[in-house]
Amino acid sequence: MELLQLVYGTNIIRIEDKIKTIAKDYAGTLDDFSFTKLNYKETAIEQIIEEAQTLPFLTDRKVIVIEEAVLFTAQKAGGSAEHNIDLLIDYIQNKNDDTLLIFTVISEKLDKRKKVTKLITERGKQIEINEMTEKELMNYVRSVLDRQNVEISSEALNLLLEKTSYKYEAVHNEVSKLLLYCDGNISLQDVENVVSVSLEQNVFLLTDFILKNEKEKAVKLARELILQKEEPMKLLHLVIGQFRLLYQVKILNGEGYQEDNIAKTLKVHPYRVKLAMRHTRMYPLDALLKKMIICRDIDYKFKSSYLDRNALFELFILEI
């Protein structure tokens, strides 16, 4: 096994699961002697290297996990620790201890221009944690429920995935809630009552209302989201992002790209592309372009106007 590993992606729970698997494969039973977690933003490079080079105590093998290792991305480190990256580069180049060092970072991509990123790719192993596919998520839910002798109908399972926007972390949390709420079987009504609608799903519904010219429903949903403490500026940028996605999907689909290719090209979840494809068939490219222009103009108003942002966001919904 490579003793230098870099695990990255946006799915926190899957990253944690992967780390535990790698660590157990190397060290066996994990305890305070064999497994240590350090935070890059709070721990100096010197301390990390010293910990890695210290012989394990009461165990044969040792694993150290360095969380928030933003040095491999374009993100700024922040935090309280000062870092000597050259010292880490020298350690990676000449590593001669038996400690398994796992760096983790929550990020969609790495900065491959950095010397330290290139080096850990050459001397270690890079693992990208992707979101699960629809089929993988369905199998995951059924496997969790099977272990508890609980059944779920196909309709209820589909609704669960839709309300959670096919995101593993959200699905994981909502399945736990359903198991506490239900006894034996999970029905469509159970999912309706228990499972929270994700912000992403609400933004999709909001965009859907706007495109269908159902302004009253759109304004009502926007007000509900604002009452839930969602900032109008954040909602605006999410809606703008959704329109941008529709525009990009429309162009790529016109060039012959299929759903999975579009998702990979745009680096977005396949479910978002699947939903976007439903809309793009109904609207010509120039209509979407006009809405993009309105998005640009309202974004400028948000940044330059002193008017109430709640009112501006409702104005945007009525104008677009």
UniProtKB/TrEMBL annotation:
<dbReference type="InterPro" id="IPR027417">
    <property type="entry name" value="P-loop_NTPase"/>
</dbReference>
<comment type="similarity">
    <text>Belongs to the DNA polymerase HolA subunit family.</text>
</comment>
<feature type="domain" description="DNA polymerase III delta subunit-like C-terminal">
    <location>
        <begin position="200"/>
        <end position="319"/>
    </location>
</feature>
<feature type="domain" description="DNA polymerase III delta N-terminal">
    <location>
        <begin position="6"/>
        <end position="129"/>
    </location>
</feature>
<keyword id="KW-0808">Transferase</keyword>
<dbReference type="Pfam" id="PF06144">
    <property type="entry name" value="DNA_pol3_delta"/>
</dbReference>
<dbReference type="InterPro" id="IPR005790">
    <property type="entry name" value="DNA_polIII_delta"/>
</dbReference>
<dbReference type="InterPro" id="IPR010372">
    <property type="entry name" value="DNA_pol3_delta_N"/>
</dbReference>
<dbReference type="InterPro" id="IPR008921">
    <property type="entry name" value="DNA_pol3_clamp-load_cplx_C"/>
</dbReference>
<protein>
    <recommendedName>
        <fullName>DNA polymerase III subunit delta</fullName>
        <ecNumber>2.7.7.7</ecNumber>
    </recommendedName>
</protein>
<dbReference type="Pfam" id="PF21694">
    <property type="entry name" value="DNA_pol3_delta_C"/>
</dbReference>
<keyword id="KW-0548">Nucleotidyltransferase</keyword>
<keyword id="KW-0239">DNA-directed DNA polymerase</keyword>
<dbReference type="InterPro" id="IPR048466">
    <property type="entry name" value="DNA_pol3_delta-like_C"/>
</dbReference>
<dbReference type="GO" id="GO:0003887">
    <property type="term" value="F:DNA-directed DNA polymerase activity"/>
</dbReference>
<keyword id="KW-0235">DNA replication</keyword>
